[in-house]
């Protein structure tokens, strides 16, 4: 059990075995282990870290801590009870599409081990909306944290249909308009198209709506990249103006790698951490306090989480650090974060941003 609960033991004994395998094979093994929900529920005493100062609010959703799981790990909501036993403040499942999608051809995931980073070119493999809803209906009575559903599609109607079908089963819906691995999503980077999408969602939604933003370009040396940066800021302001409750900042960074079947993918992990901090800070300045921000990208420690919250985030999300550090990473982040808050005399997560 210590091998599972302790990030150091996981890195020394379990990760070397998993990393001998292709990334998707290792992920499948992890998912099989997570299907033993009673075991993870029993382990939750050692994986959870409760501290009153860590309680947070995300668009009216009460959280026991500000550390969420990012979309992409449990794509079809098949291991929710186990994931919510790991100590997360909330868990984001998906990304779900209306119809079944195979995603991109393999290989579509690479490890950059020296940098504790990943590149993925999944392309939204999904078993479809009906499967996700069936899994949610079966598992929600056994979940220990709020659940957010990530949805996407290639046109407005597809996203609206997916949102309408899944919203009754979750605490909030996150719309992904920004995956670098899915041809067609860039249509939602058009101000007019995004306006129509958000207005369509506003007509029927009853719960908080999040939008997952594209990242800033990795360089600002050209006019095109400066224009792209300005467009993303404009999209964020538009989301705030149209009542979006939270922005998830940000999606993976586009990168070329010939080892991927499609030749390019999205970078996550430590290599994007500092870019994420800068983007969170700039978007917070742009939107003010009118919308919450979920920071995602390279968060591995409580110090990382504290810096993201100080930059303007309300919560943080992790995924790559779960793969590199194991299930004990959630407790480790929360424990260190609460210690930093105590040293600084901060009694709530909301005070971190207010005093930065």
Q: Determine the strand fraction and express it as a percent band.
A: 15-25%
CATH class: Alpha Beta
* Low confidence ranges: none
CA-atom Rg in angstroms: 19 Å
- Number of domain modules: 1
The CATH architecture assignment turns out to be Alpha-Beta Barrel
Describe this protein's structure:
By secondary structure, this protein is α/β, with parallel strands linked by helices. It has a single domain, classed as TIM Barrel, CATH 3.20.20. It has 14 helices and 14 strands. It has helices at residues 2-5, 7-18, 23-34, 37-47, 80-83, 129-139, 156-166, 191-202, 223-241, 273-287, 302-311, 320-325, 329-343, 349-355; strands spanning 56-58, 61-63, 67-69, 90-96, 109-112, 117-120, 147-151, 172-176, 209-212, 246-249, 253-256, 264-269, 292-296, 315-318. Strands 3-4-7-8-9-10-13-14 form an eight-stranded parallel barrel, surrounded by five helices. Strands 5-6-12-11 form a four-stranded antiparallel beta sheet. Helix 7 links the parallel strand 7 (147-151) and strand 8 (172-176). Helix 8 packs parallel to helix 9 (223-241) and helix 10 (273-287) packs parallel to helix 11. The chain is globular and about 50 Å long. The model has no long low-confidence stretch (mean pLDDT 95).
